[in-house]
Design a protein that fits this description.
two-stranded antiparallel ribbon, 55% helix
Length: 209
């Protein structure tokens, strides 16, 4: 949600919250993001307020380009890894959107810091990545973690990645399978589980979009 614009209202008024009528952020966020960042830097609203609004905008953004802009805004605000981790549950659904910019920025942080009980949920969402670079980032981050108790839930996905046409992705997946001692042979024909609002369910395809 954001503040509405009223007659003769200045950017300072708008960002300092003089208007209390909530409206949705517009779908085209480039100029909004620039003004928002400048206002936060100039002290028109506190850093905590700025972060809360930026996270809200990221969560409600519809287009990948808009999400990329709000990720940039968060970086301009010097968002810390622990501040991202505090919002893990809210960020996991964003990972599941297969948005490369979101996965590249958020997945390594969440994979590094998540508890064992949450790690697989984060990975299932991040495995929606559709680009080689994003898949590499996710798999490399996972390799730095010890095996979680429910690692077998990832078997179908890792089996598919181990057969990826990109040799680097396939190699990383095979390393993770070996490091986490995951049995994949019997699961080669199963549909991979995908993130579904905190529950694992069979995917609709080999690489769901």
């Amino acid at each position: 949600m954001a503040c509405c614009q009223v007659e003769n209202e200045t950017p300072a008024d708008r960002l300092s919250g003089s208007c209390q009528v909530p409206v949705r952020f517009p779908s085209g966020c480039c100029q909004v993001g620039a003004v928002f960042s400048a206002g936060a830097k100039r002290g028109w609203l506190s850093r905590e307020e700025a972060l809360a609004l930026a996270f809200l905008a990221l969560d409600t953004a519809v287009r990948p380009g808009d999400r990329r802009i709000w990720l940039q805004v968060l970086d301009i605000l010097d968002v810390r890894d622990e501040e991202l981790f505090e919002r893990t549950q809210a960020l996991i659904p964003l990972l599941a959107l297969s948005d490369t910019s979101v996965i590249a920025r958020l997945a390594p942080v969440l994979i590094e810091r998540s508890s064992d009980s949450l790690l697989v949920e984060v990975l299932l969402a991040a495995f929606s990545a559709t680009t080689k670079k994003a898949r590499q980032l996710v798999l490399k981050a996972a390799l730095n973690r010890p095996r979680p108790e429910n690692a077998e839930d990832l078997a179908a996905w890792l089996s598919l990645f181990a057969e990826d046409k990109d040799k680097s992705v396939a190699s990383l997946a095979k390393r993770l399978i070996s490091q986490w001692e995951i049995e994949v042979e019997a699961l080669a024909e199963e549909e991979p589980a995908v993130y579904a609002g905190g529950k694992n369910q069979a995917g609709a395809g080999r690489y769901p979009c």
